[in-house]
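Hi V.,

You were right to ask for the full record rather than a summary. Here it is.
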Amino acid sequence: MVKKTFSSGLPKLDAFVGGFLPGDTFLTVVSEYKYWAQIIEHAVGYAVQHNFPITYFSCTNVFFHLVDNYRKLHHVQFDDGGSTVNRVLRSIKKNTLSKWGRSFIILDELSTWKNLLGSERHILELFDTVTDLTTQRNCFLLSSASRSAFKKESLVHLKDASTVSIDISTHNGDGYGIVL
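Predicted structure:
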């Protein structure tokens, strides 16, 4: 039996980075949000087409319209109503460990968690927790960080914690990716 492999849904990107394996964390550092949205749209399309489960951890629900009718969706929405860092991390651990292995995990763009979690340090803790769970459950994590929203040291930490990291910059209106 052939095991299904993970994909960004963009064959040229997959080939460029050498493909994605169970346990991989794919971080996109972006200057413009539209590049992250394009990657998520293609990755969700691939996951649905190939019948992969999707776990979506959200504090904005910005991508919910892409997955709201998908039967293999596990959606966890966090809001400001009493969510503490520890409560968010416990919920993510519980919801990741109790659901499917070998699933796509989508984590909203990391700077959007700042209002909920309160600091960059807590966002790094969130990312590290989800990265560890991704490895344990043989999942594929997709997340993004807005370059302008984080200190240089935090971006370095996020890139180092990811198995695949790509920096997408804009020049003359076009997006260019550099694998880090």
